[in-house]
Amino acid sequence: MTYFPSFIPQSDPPLPPWETLPTMYDLPSDNPEEPGLPDDFHFLQPLLLYLTFQPINWNPELVYSAADLNLYYTIEHPLWYKRPDWFGVVGVQKLYKGQDLRLSYVTWQEPANPFVIVELLSPGTEEEDLGIKKSATDKPPSKWEVYEQILRIPYYVVFSRYTNELQAFQLVGGHYEPMNLTEGRILMPEIDLSLGLWQGSFRDVERLWLRWFTLAGELIPAPTEEAVAASQRAIIAEQEAAQAKQEAAQAKQKAEKLAERLRQLGVNPDEID
């Protein structure tokens, strides 16, 4: 008969869960059954969201966003993940633990869950993205179930490039409620931003794009747009300076002509108060 003592002294306290659970280095960051991105739009649209996600009331060093990155969401099934088209987080450093580019976003290793997730509708994923298709009991939960019930993402946005329809859902009382748009935009006062549609050219492609605005509706410029705007301001400033210089030269010329005319009339212009 084997004897098990009722108490076994431990020299060291148990390690916290985040030190014993798998990290992003232990978990796969790709899936051979899901190779690459499906089309150009699924590359360009998340890129525009990435470039313009600049929460005004947050330190830029504590703002993170990613596209097509594995999002691991439950420690009960550590190999289960979703792969959002784009998501944004606040309160998280750009680098994993301030040191490394992320291979995946592992929620139990991070200080915060995503604040907003965007899915771009495709014919094959529409039912799951919109919560119409439920997962089987023996299968991983659907995106909708993960975002709403497990990660409790405050804002979930769905955009269709085929119909240009924008739908948004806000977490209210533990479940998603459809949001009304304000002047065509989704307001997110917690980060002083709004998300809406914009007709314009991005990477030389003219179409209707989803992008970030201020709460008041002003565009958040992408770095290239900011550089172009700065160049245009410099050109305008140079033109204004040249015009001011020309006007000063014309005024000086008029003053010299007036002084010469006074001298011809016998009046010394230097003696006139």
UniProtKB/TrEMBL annotation:
Residues 227-268 form a coiled coil. The keyword Translocase does not apply. Keywords: Coiled coil, Endonuclease, Hydrolase, Nuclease. InterPro entries: Uma2. GO terms for molecular function: endonuclease activity. The keyword Coiled coil applies. It holds the Pfam family Uma2. It comes from the Bacteria. Residues 25-198 form the Putative restriction endonuclease domain. This is Uma2 family endonuclease. It comes from Nostoc paludosum FACHB-159.
